[in-house]
Amino acid sequence: MQYSPENPDLPQLLFDALSPLLNLMHSARTISPGKIGILRTLAAEEHVSATQLSRAIGVSQQAISLSTKELESLGLIERRKDESDRRKLWFHLTEAGHRKLESEVEMGRQALKNAIGNELSAEELKLIHHALPALAKISKAAN
Fold first, then answer.
1. Residue pLDDT, tens place only, 84-133
2. How far is residue 18's CA from residue 21's CA, in Å, rounded to a whole number?
3. pLDDT confidence bin for 59, thresholds 50/70/90
4. Which of 140, 91, 126, 111 shows the shortest CA–CA distance to 29?
5. Who's near 105: CB < 8 A, 6+ residues apart?
6. Rounded CA Rg of the chain
7. 114: left (phi over 0), alpha (psi -120 to 50) or beta
8. What whole-number distance in Å separates Cα of residue 130 and Cα of residue 74?
9. Does residue 24 surpass a pLDDT of 60?
10. What angle do CA 59, 64, 67 make, to 5 degrees?
11. Where does the pLDDT of residue 1 fall: very low under 50, low under 70, confident under 90, or very high at 90 and above?
C-alpha cells in the first residue's frame, strides 16, 4: 500500500512523537548514540572494518576513527590485524563492551519504561501496543 495524501501531516506527527522518545532514551545513557551504534554493530558481527562501521551507522570515517579510539581506550573494543592480510584492521567487541552495551540499552529501556508508566493510562497503553506491528513494518522498510 502506498502512502496516502489523506493525512499529509502524518510523517511529521510521527516524527514529532518519536523524536522526544529517542532523546529520552539517549539522555539516560552515558555514551553517545553513535558509540552505541558501533557497539551494536560489533555485537552483531564477529569482526567489522572501519568502513563497514561507517556504513552501518551512517557516520563519517573520521567520526568512526575518533569513536573507536575512545571505545578502545575504555576497553570496550579492540582492533586486530587480519591474519591473512596484515594491512587490514578489524574491530571486535570485548567482554567489557558486551556488558557496557547491555547496561546502556537497559538504561534507555528503563527511562522509556518510567515515562510510559508515569504518563499513560491503561487505554493509551493498549493503543500503543496495537500500533507496534505497524511501527515494526515502518522500521523494516527503513532498513
1. 887 889 999 999 999 999 999 999 999 999 888 878 888 999 999 999 99
2. 5
3. very high
4. 111
5. 36
6. 19
7. alpha
8. 41
9. yes
10. 120
11. very low
Are the C-beta atoms of 98 and 78 separated by less than 8 Å? no
Written as nine digits, the cell of 11 is 510523517
> Diameter of the chain by CA atoms?
59
Helix (H, G, I), strand (E, B) or coil at 48: strand
Asked whether residue 143 carries a pLDDT value surpassing 70, the answer given is no
The C-alpha atoms of residue 87 and residue 133 are separated, in whole angstroms, by 45
- Stated as kind and residue range, the H or E segment containing 80 is strand 77-81
Residue 30: all three cell numbers together:
552515558
Cell of 133: 506491528
Query: Strands (DSSP E) along the chain, which ranges?
Result: 77-81, 89-93
70 near 35, Cβ under 8 Å? yes
